[in-house]
Every structure is written in structure tokens, then in C-alpha cells.
Amino acid sequence: MWVSLVAKIVIIVGMNGVICDLESVNWLRGTSTDLTKALQFLREYDTEASEMCFRVNTAQWQYSTNMTDLLKRKMVEEQTLRAKFDKLTWKRAVVFDWTRISDPVARRQLKMLTTNTRASLSDEKYNEIYHLISEMKDIYATTRTCAYAPGIHDNEVTYCDLGLEDIQTIMAKSKDHKELAHTWREWHDKIGPPLKNKYMRYADLANQAARLNGFLDAGEEMRFMYEDPDFENELAQTFHKLQPLYKELLTYVRRKLIEQYGDRVVRPEGPLPAHILGNLWAQDWTNIADIVLPYPKFADMDVTVEILRQGFTPLRMFQMAEEFFTSMGLKPMPPEFWRHSMIERPNGRKVQCTASAWDFCNNIDFRIKQCTEMNMKNLIMIHHEMAHIEYYLYYSDEPYLFRDGANPGFHEGVANAIVLSVFNLKHLWRVGLFNTNTDNYELNINFLMLMALKKVAYAPFAYLLEQWRYDLFESGVTRMNADWWDLRLRYQGVVPPATRSDAHFDAAAKRHVPADVPYARYYVALLLEFQVFKVACQAAGQTGPLHGCDLYRSREAGRVLMDIMRSGKSKHWRQVIRSMTRGETDRISADAMLEYFDPLLVWLRNQNRDEKVVGWTTFKEDKALFQPLIYGGSGVPTAKLACIFVVVLVFIQFVQ
Ligand SMILES: *[C@@H]1O[C@H](CO)[C@@H](O)[C@H](O)[C@H]1NC(C)=O
Ligand SMILES: [Zn+2]
């Protein structure tokens, strides 16, 4: 038959509390190498998948721009149909042995269809994981928490209907550390426990699917998306290179936070408490800019006043963004874009306002959905979303499976490279929105600080989230909360504002975890953003500091971007990097990001010169916040021993 069963022996430690389990794995892969049949299948798939994508996206669009129960039901119906279609597709694709298909394009497509899918699971389990994920997303979306109410006693009523958006606002705006700690705890205490058992089952099923696809666990399968076994090392190296900059930033920010909150809230030389950084996940510190900005006198970099004064409308902001792209020789937005996009919050119906860019997979229909408000943030966001549309337009002639970024970080990386050229004092000055002399040193340091609070502060979080998930898929769920905080302390230098235990599940506070959305892409995108920006700036012939580079009106820069976008996912991303750097490298690197922030690094080193500790020292009390007594009779060491014993026994059997 077409399925060859490759038996493997794997040892699972700790998953679902199982001490040690020996299991033979059936690796599903077909034997057919018939190229004609493969090409025939792929042609049919291409048409059907594009149609399916059109239907699902249309239903999703209708619901997001008109949130009624009826439209939600229709959307769920289409999504369920797609899940069935994916399952069917997998069955047809796995007949072939992609490793032995001679045509490289067909081989690449078949590989994509038979890896990174849960369709290898039985129908029953496939449905189960699909429903588990939607249940977890629902819980995440509907969790409510109670407001901070000092002085209220147990039997009095407090307001308990705060959703995630309200919480984010409080985390961003409040400077009352007790309110912040309360809000942080409410969310983490309420979101994790109801998700924990579901997530454990989900991890188990994801691993089963991965093993059927020929991987050791679901983490290995996720890494396989990057098509390079050395990729993890490459990322670890970039992380290592960014550490000194991150530590300087943290050290300076810590001093400012101590000035604000006192050394009873923030320990000098210690890690930062996660609740006072202006963000629920401590991943973006922009909201504490008012506390840490180096030169308050030059604080005003927001051009909103000018946008209002010049009487902009949402349409004019969109036209301005389009002109940015056409000035580089890139494509204008097609007529359908202008006809169908939603660029303002409509009256009389409920809509989902998160800004997003849509590809309807029919080579005609591309749209943005955004409830544009008249401010600088929205102007920048429009440029970002429109960059995604440019990407869609340039690869629209590729087969369905190649209509994507070269690797999962490319789309976001390119869109943010554009933003680096737009949220940029020189650019804002050139387009008549910023009137101050942009050569001022203090102004530039302020600007770089603001960028660092967003980008440099984000790096360790973006990196560690997936490390945690990889560890979990590999070694099981027994220590999942303590592991989460171990990583956050080690990489990010943050600690929770309250004691955590096994009953908590704090990683679930970030939507991407329960919603099953990969995260490594955001770290890759962060590096690519600067890397792409740098090569485009070089092509544009820009000299001077990188943070002052503006790509506006440079056709040469446009060509660099066009080449990246046009190949979509049809080529290995290493080839794309090699060609964009004109053969210089094919690696993801932190160098461009470090170059961008170099003036700030010099400034920070000077500011921190009297600090005893640049970075943070970890005390026992820090770890005690989240580490249960590991050796207090939990039996973990014994379980490990038992497992090793079984493995040795099996080994002896084999030898005999
Ligand atoms: C919103 O959806 C409802 C159906 O649920 C429909 O009757 C209504 O016309 C839609 N509104 C708009 C503006 O499309
Ligand atoms: Zn984006």
C-alpha cells in the first residue's frame, strides 16, 4: 500500500503525568513518485484552495465588519468546511513521497502540504484538537476581571466586567503600582487555571500529530517551517548579540522606575517587576516613556496636532500612504481596494476594529480594515497595513502555496521596515508634518529611546515565548509555569508581582499560546525589519545614521523591496536574503538593529557608568516567587530514574 510505516521508539517523559512511555510511531508517508499525477493533483489543489480561501475570507470579512450572530454562524460554517478540506487535501498529498519527486516546485509544494498539519490525526482527534483550540480562544476572549477597589470590603460589590482591552488600558495608563499589581494578578489568575487542562490535552494531540508527520514532537515540526536545522543556533547567536544593549536599557529604565516607585517596589540591581512596565506582558515599554524619556524638554515627537491642523481625513491619510509606495516605484492600490476597504468605523453596526490587511486569494480583491482615527499612530499603521497589501500584490501570480512571506517572519519584517522609514523624524519633516530641526542631538536620543522601548524591550519576550513552547512539547507539562518564569527571569529579567504556583498557567495570558499561533516569527521579523531596512537604505544611497534614513522617493529602494516581495515563498528564504544583500550573506543577523541603536547604546553606557550591575542579579527570593519545592517529594527525580531504567532495559533487549 501507499503508506510505509516507519517504526520509531520515543520516550515521553512527564506528558500528562505519564512517567515513562514507550510507543511505536507510525510515520505516514506515501511511496508514489508519479510526477504526472503529482502535478495534476497540485493543479486541482491550487484552484480549490484559492476558492476555499476566498470563501473563508469573505465570510470572515463580513463578520468582522458587521458582527451579527447570523454572520458569525456563517463564518464558523466556512471555517469548519475549510478544516475538512485541509484534512482531505492531506490525504491526497500524503500518497506521494515528496522527498523523491523530481520536480523541485512540486516537491516543495508537497512538502508544505504534508508537514505542519494536524490532518495526520484520526478524524476523531483532528476534530478534538480543532474544537479545543476554538474553546480556548473563546475562553480567552470572554474572560472578565474585577476592578481595583481599595477600601471595599468583602461583602460589597465591585465592578467585575473588565475585559482584556480595559486591562490593557489600565496597564498602559495607571501609575499606581497597587492598582497595576491588582490588575496584573486578576488577569493572570483568571485566565490560566480554566485553560490549563485543555492546553495539556492540546499539547498531547499536537505532539501525536507531529509524530505521525515524522517529527519527534510538535516543536521540531514548528522549527521545520524555517527549512534549516541550524536556524535555532543562528537565532540564539543573534539573541546573544542583543543582550548587552538590552541590559543597558533595562539598567537605565530600572533607575528611573526606582525614582518613580521607590526601592521597595523595584530592587536596585535586581530584575524588574512585570507589572510596572506599561504593558500586561512587559513586552513593550513605550507606555512608560513619560518616566524614562532622556530629555523631557524635547519630548514632543507626535505630529497628531499637525495632522489635525492640516485637516486630514482617513481617505487622505490612505492616499498619502499610497503615494509613499508609488514614490518608490511600487504598485498603486487597485480600484477594488478603494471600493471595498473599510477605512472608518461605520455607524449603526458593531465591527472588529483591529487594523488588518486582507488577501482574498482571487488576484483581484485586496482590502484593509481599519477604524482610522486622526492621529500619528494611525497614519503609521496605514503604511504598515498597506505594505502587506503590496506584498500580496507582488506575489499574486505565484501558486497558492507560495503566496506568503519567504519564511514566517518576512511579511511582518517588510511591513515594519516600511514603518522605520515613516516613523522617522526626517520623513515626517519631508512630508510637512514635523517642523522642528531634526539634527538636534537631544531630540534624536529621545527618538531612539522611544524606539528602543518598543523594539529592544521586545526582543527577549519575542524570543523566549517559543523557547517555552518548544520545551513544553519536548519535555512535557509538569513544570510548565515555573519554566515560563525561569525563562522570563533569565532572558527578560522580569519577575511576577505575586507568588505563582503550579495551579497557575501564566503563559496563557498571551493569546498566541491558547490560540495556537506560532511566535518565533515575531522575533525573526524584528531582526528582518532592520536588516531589510538597512539594505534598502544602502540601495537608496543614504549616508548618515541608520535611524535617519528615509526610503521615500527612492526607486532603488523600491526595487530591493519588490524583489523580496515578488518571490513570495517560492524560494528558500536564505536565497532571498542572499539576493537582497547582493550575495553578502544568507543569514538572519542582529547587526543592522545594533547599528540602528548604536547612538543610544553609547548614550546608555555613559548614563550607566556608575551602576554596580548592568543587567540584573538574581536572588533566591526572585526564584521563590515561582518555584515550587522541586525536591519536596514531588517524585520527579524518581520518575526520571525509573525512565532511564526502562530505557536501559529496552536497549538490552535490542542488543540481544
Ligand atoms: C449586517 O448583517 C445583517 C445580517 O445579519 C444584514 O441584515 C445587514 O444588512 C448587514 N449590514 C450591512 C451594513 O451590511
Ligand atoms: Zn502586520
From TrEMBL:
EC number assigned by the record: 3.4.-.-
Protein name, entry field: Angiotensin-converting enzyme
GO molecular function: carboxypeptidase activity; metal ion binding; metallopeptidase activity; peptidyl-dipeptidase activity
Signal sequence extent: 1-20
BP GO annotations: proteolysis
Active-site positions on this chain: 385, 512
Cofactor note: Binds 1 zinc ion per subunit.
Alphabetical list of Gene3D superfamilies matching this protein: 1.10.1370.30
Gene Ontology terms: cellular component: plasma membrane
InterPro entries referenced in this protein's UniProt entry, alphabetically: Peptidase_M2
Cofactor: Zn(2+)
Entry keywords, A to Z: Carboxypeptidase, Disulfide bond, Glycoprotein, Hydrolase, Membrane, Metal-binding, Metalloprotease, Protease, Signal, Transmembrane, Transmembrane helix, Zinc
Transmembrane regions: 629-652
Binding of Zn(2+) 1, residues: 384, 388, 412
S-S bridge residues: 146-160, 353-371, 537-549
UniProt keyword annotation of Transmembrane helix present: yes
Residues reported in the UniProt entry to bind chloride: 226, 521
Family that this chain belongs to: Belongs to the peptidase M2 family.
Binding residue positions for Zn(2+) 2: 384, 388, 412
Organism for this UniProt entry: Phaedon cochleariae
Glycosylation sites: 66
Enzyme class, spelled out: hydrolase
